[in-house]
Amino acid sequence: MIRKIVNPDTSTWNELAKRPVKDLEELEPGIRQTFKLVQELGDEALLQLAEKYDGVRPSQLLVSEQELTSATDKVDAELREAILQAYNNIRTFHEKQAEKMQPVETMPGVLCWRKSVAIQKVGLYIPGGTAPLFSTLLMLGVPAKLAGCESIILCTPPAKDGSIHPAILYTAGLLGINRIVKAGGAQAVAAMAFGTESVLAVSKIFGPGNQYVTVAKQMVSRLGVAIDMPAGPSEVLVMADEAANPAFVAADLLSQAEHGADSQVVLLTTSEQLLDAVGKELEKQLAELPRAGFAAQALENSLAIVLPDTAQMLAFSNMYAPEHLILAIKDYESIAEGVVNAGSVFLGNFTPESAGDYASGTNHTLPTNGFARAYSGVSLDSFLKKITFQHITPVGLTNIGKTVEVMAAAEGLQAHKNAVSIRLKEINNV
Ligand SMILES: NC(=O)c1ccc[n+]([C@@H]2O[C@H](COP(=O)([O-])OP(=O)(O)OC[C@H]3O[C@@H](n4cnc5c(N)ncnc54)[C@H](O)[C@@H]3O)[C@@H](O)[C@H]2O)c1
Ligand SMILES: N[C@H](CO)Cc1c[nH]c[nH+]1
Ligand SMILES: [Zn+2]
């Protein structure tokens, strides 16, 4: 069960913030082997590795037209309606993120502007090892389509019978994504990075996944393929005081613990009484969960920490940088203002984290393992490049020319200076 700690010394906080993830050095050699196999054997490597890790050698790697069209009837009407509602909310939230910058005249005759352009070829990884995360497809597919990415490839591991979950296929159909590859894990990442006969090499790979997927993404990013961020095993940190409801807090902790044995959940509280009540609720609710095995293992790696006040809870949370932060405290509005490191924040007692996982509109592909200190979650921007443009008139060059000449000369870069001087001479007819 969850480890309890009362008023830990601040010198121990960094140690407490370590996630239960395997070392990069432990995972990298195996993943490098996988990369080599995919580069040497292409599609055949994907088939062999599906057999090894997913327990099936699919009869074909690409989902067929027939598999795609027959998926709709296999998804019940209530689920289709829920997916549609989530799709609409996610679309509404993400389309408002579009920016159009007006040109700016920094000096008379010197005009600068910036334009957003879609990344042309993108790859989406949809986890499917232990749960078919069709919600993740909405989180990646909606902004990819809004951005206008021309070529979108989707990789997801096949089930033991070689199929892809109908809800994933239905969601792909809704989004208009039809190139779907039955491949998971590091081999899927390798295929999207290097290309195979069936998988087009892409410029940027998106999507969460287990540690193999996350480390593989980090490794290809060193080889020149962009990635969204390291989005590994799910985590949540709940800050709770006496205003919190222990049953709600336990439910929120379990909602992320059930993702997998390597997930971590953290409870910070000012009240030992609340901590005990949450402990009882955890036991009660855990016993009812179909994925109790995963959740119980995750709780073993998790923490419940009593701290003296809300300021200390905020300080710990900012140091921990959780993927999800729930503020189940009286002053959630003012404390939210002080959050500087978190993937996504949930305010008050009636904002469960699962609402963001599925349907409120925000993106659930978020940085884990402390990466929220520097990375943002997926958004429309993740699928766009920002290209800057400028146009300088002869009057503009007359205004800015001297500045550039002086700076170039001071850096000892005469050719830079000349590129301006030669034009100024022409303007002045010298
Ligand atoms: N951070 C986020 O935004 C976010 C969002 C959703 C899900 N998640 C996380 O995604 C993960 C999904 O994990 P999953 O395992 O269910 O699915 P997954 O699709 O990420 O991984 C399954 C694949 O892992 C590979 N694999 C499994 N065992 C292996 C081994 N021993 N060696 C090499 N490769 C192996 C296999 O190829 C398999 O196809 C969970 O950890 C969940 O918490 C994170
Ligand atoms: N909590 C996950 C992100 O860490 C996203 C998810 C998908 N389905 C359910 N939850
Ligand atoms: Zn979740």
Describe what you observe in this structure:
GO terms for molecular function: histidinol dehydrogenase activity; NAD binding; zinc ion binding. Its cofactor is Zn(2+). InterPro entries: Ald_DH/histidinol_DH, Histidinol_DH_CS, Histidinol_DH_monofunct, Hstdl_DH. Catalyzes the sequential NAD-dependent oxidations of L-histidinol to L-histidinaldehyde and then to L-histidine. Its EC number is 1.1.1.23. By secondary structure, the chain is an alpha/beta fold. About 45% of the residues lie in helices and about 15% in strands. It is built from 17 helices and 14 strands. A 6-stranded parallel beta sheet has the order 1-11-10-9-12-13, with helices on both faces. Strand 5, helix 7 and strand 6 form a beta-alpha-beta unit. The longest helix has 19 residues, at about 75-95. It starts with a strand and ends with a helix. Bound molecules: nicotinamide-adenine-dinucleotide, L-histidinol and zinc ion.
The unique ligands bound to this protein are: nicotinamide-adenine-dinucleotide, L-histidinol, zinc ion
* Alpha carbon gap, first and last residue: 83 Å
Computed over alpha carbons, the radius of gyration is: 25 Å
Mean pLDDT: 97
In total, the number of strands is 14
The residue fraction in helices comes out at 40-55%
What fraction of residues sit in β-strands?
Answer: 15-25%
Assign an overall shape.
Answer: globular
**Largest pleated sheet:** 6 strands, parallel
Count of runs of 4 or more consecutive helical residues: 17
Q: What ranges have pLDDT less than 50 throughout 5 or more consecutive residues?
A: none
Structural class, by secondary structure, is alpha/beta
Report strand order across the widest sheet. 1-11-10-9-12-13
